[in-house]
Each structure stands twice: as structure tokens, then as C-alpha cells.
């Protein structure tokens, strides 16, 4: 077997890195592989490939930092445009309960098919399908057809509901977690780690939602409005919008993983015996916060991002400069 070629992304301009890599990948034949090396996290590239190329490339992490990141990409035979787990959750949010129970990331890494998930997590696909069928017999989580929402409306929904929830609850939960961690540092030392995980995740979320409200969402609204009116945006923002999305997805993937760890440390938020009411309240708030966070990530990554990509692609096909 021939060894794959090496593409050293450290040697090219960071502003054109994804373009250069896409050109290299598009020239590859089926079955051909390339090893990409960079001095920055390559997960944003992973999410770009997942969002824009579906299952056209296999991804294998060889080195995961902190000094160098190496991944091997293999060109695959294009398959059928199969439904992804993100599509399934978008169609009916009750499916999210099954993936969450199995610790499957549907909110950030939702571009995988059921078959890929079963391979990644060593699951039996028939058992998984049975669990998904059973979950759909439960009362509906929501009756709103989120798939029909326009990008501008999705942005406003995220700001007015999810962002407000994060702004209000993040500092309160962080303070409560710190107090509980101090009070139970001897009898329940794991709460100290829970407190640190939440504090770090909360700081990132507060930073990101402010950035979304200041620039990302306004740019998406303007792009969507221009497309609906068949007019040209004053400035090409699609590259910046998508680059920001993929960078955030890499960050939010880590936050989702941290909350899976919080669930493990708290035994799925099962409150120990003989603890204070503050302990009970903390677990309840952590569980609600995680649920809201995953829904927020899902709306952004599995609904809003594909709509932005669709607008960009339609503008290109209509030969509208943008």
C-alpha cells in the first residue's frame, strides 16, 4: 500500500488554508489519502467537510495537539444522500433523548448517519432503531416546525430565548457550584471538578453569544434578506460567516463533551443522600442548562448553518456575485 502524501498546512497562509486544502482534496481520486499537518486545531476543517461534503471523506485523527495536529483524509465513493442524526433530531426533537442517553453528540457532530454512529460507538443498528422508534411514542417535545423557519427568524429566536437563558443562568450556576464545591470538598470532591468544568464552559458561552449578537447573526440576517430580495449584499460575508461557524463548532464540541463528563461525575444528575437543598438545586439547574445548551447548538449547527450554506449555493448557481 502506498503511503499517503503529506500536506503541511503550516507553510501556507491561514486565510486561504481551507481553500488550498479543498483544492487538494478535490483533485484526489477515490481511495487516495492525504495527511494534513497544522499547528492549530483542525476540527474546524472537519466540520466544514461534514457540512459541505457530507460523507465524501474519511477522517482519522493521528495527532491531537497541543504542538501539532495531524489528520489523514481519505476520498470515499459518494454514497446516497442519507439522513443524518442531525436531520433526525431536526425532524423530531424526541430523537435527541436517545442520542443523549448513548452519549452521542447530535448537536455539534450531527452530520453522521446512523450507520456511522453505530460504527463509531460499537452499537447495534437494529437496537438503535428500536430505541428511536420507542422514543417517538412519547409525548412530543415541541410541535413547532423548526425546519420551516427562515434564518433571520432563527437568529432572533436564539437571541431572545437561548441567549437570554445563558446570560441569566450562567453566573448564577457558576456561583452556586463554587459554593457547593467548597462546602462538600471532603465528602463529595467530584463537585469541585464539576464546578471548574462549568465555569470554563460558561465563560466561553458568554463570550460566543456576545460575538453572535454583535456580528455573526446580523451578517446572517443581512445575507438572508438580500437573497430574499434578489439584491446584492454590500459586502461578501459568506466566507466570514462560515469560517466563524466552523470555529465555534469546534469549541462547542468541547463544551458538549465537558457536559457529558459532568453527567458522568454527577451520575446523571442523581443527587446524593443527606445533602443540602443547594446541592439539589445545583443538579437541577445543571441538567436544565445542558438541555438548553444542546438545543442551542442543535439550532445553530443542524438548522441555521445548512440554511446559510443553501443560500450561498443558490446564489452561486444563479450566478449572483456576492
From TrEMBL:
GO cellular component, one term: cytoplasm
Domain DUF2249: residue ranges: 6-75
Lineage, top ranks: Bacteria, Pseudomonadati, Bacteroidota, Sphingobacteriia, Sphingobacteriales
Protein's organism: Mucilaginibacter ginsenosidivorax
Region forming the signal peptide: none
Entries under Pfam families matching the protein: DUF2249, ScdA_N
Subcellular location: Cytoplasm
UniProt name for this protein: DUF2249 domain-containing protein
Predominant localisation class: cytoplasm
Domain of life according to the entry: Bacteria
Amino acid at each position: 500500500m502506498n503511503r499517503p502524501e503529506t500536506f503541511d498546512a503550516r507553510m501556507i497562509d491561514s486565510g486561504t488554508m481551507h481553500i488550498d486544502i479543498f483544492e487538494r482534496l478535490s483533485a484526489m481520486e477515490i481511495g487516495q489519502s492525504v495527511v494534513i499537518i497544522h499547528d492549530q486545531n483542525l476540527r474546524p476543517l472537519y466540520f466544514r467537510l461534514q457540512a459541505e461534503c457530507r460523507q465524501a471523506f474519511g477522517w482519522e485523527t493521528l495527532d491531537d495537539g497541543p504542538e501539532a495536529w495531524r489528520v489523514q483524509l481519505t476520498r470515499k465513493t459518494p454514497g446516497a444522500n442519507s439522513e443524518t442524526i442531525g436531520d433526525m433530531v431536526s425532524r423530531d426533537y424526541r430523537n435527541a433523548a436517545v442520542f443523549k442517553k448513548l452519549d452521542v453528540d447530535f448537536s455539534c457532530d450531527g452530520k453522521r448517519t446512523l450507520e456511522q454512529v453505530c460504527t463509531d460507538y460499537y452499537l447495534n443498528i437494529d437496537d438503535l432503531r428500536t430505541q428511536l422508534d420507542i422514543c417517538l411514542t412519547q409525548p412530543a417535545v415541541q410541535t413547532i416546525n423548526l425546519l420551516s423557519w427562515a434564518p433571520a427568524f432563527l437568529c432572533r429566536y436564539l437571541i431572545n430565548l437561548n441567549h437570554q437563558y445563558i446570560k441569566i443562568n450562567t453566573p448564577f450556576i457558576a456561583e452556586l457550584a463554587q459554593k457547593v464545591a467548597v462546602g462538600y470538598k471532603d465528602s463529595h470532591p467530584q463537585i469541585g471538578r464539576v464546578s471548574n468544568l462549568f465555569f470554563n464552559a460558561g465563560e466561553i458561552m458568554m463570550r460566543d453569544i456576545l460575538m453572535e449578537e454583535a456580528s455573526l447573526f446580523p451578517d446572517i440576517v443581512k445575507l438572508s434578506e438580500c437573497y430574499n430580495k434578489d439584491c446584492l449584499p454590500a459586502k461578501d460575508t459568506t466566507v466570514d460567516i462560515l469560517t466563524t461557524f466552523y470555529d465555534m463548532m469546534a469549541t462547542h464540541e468541547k463544551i458538549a463533551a465537558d457536559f457529558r463528563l459532568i453527567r458522568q461525575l454527577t451520575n446523571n444528575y442523581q443527587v446524593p443522600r443527606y445533602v443540602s437543598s443547594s446541592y439539589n438545586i445545583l443538579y437541577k439547574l445543571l441538567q436544565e442548562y445542558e438541555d438548553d445548551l444542546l438545543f442551542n447548538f442543535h439550532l445553530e449547527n443542524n438548522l441555521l448553518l445548512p440554511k446559510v450554506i443553501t443560500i450561498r449555493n443558490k446564489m452561486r448557481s444563479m450566478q449572483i456575485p456576492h
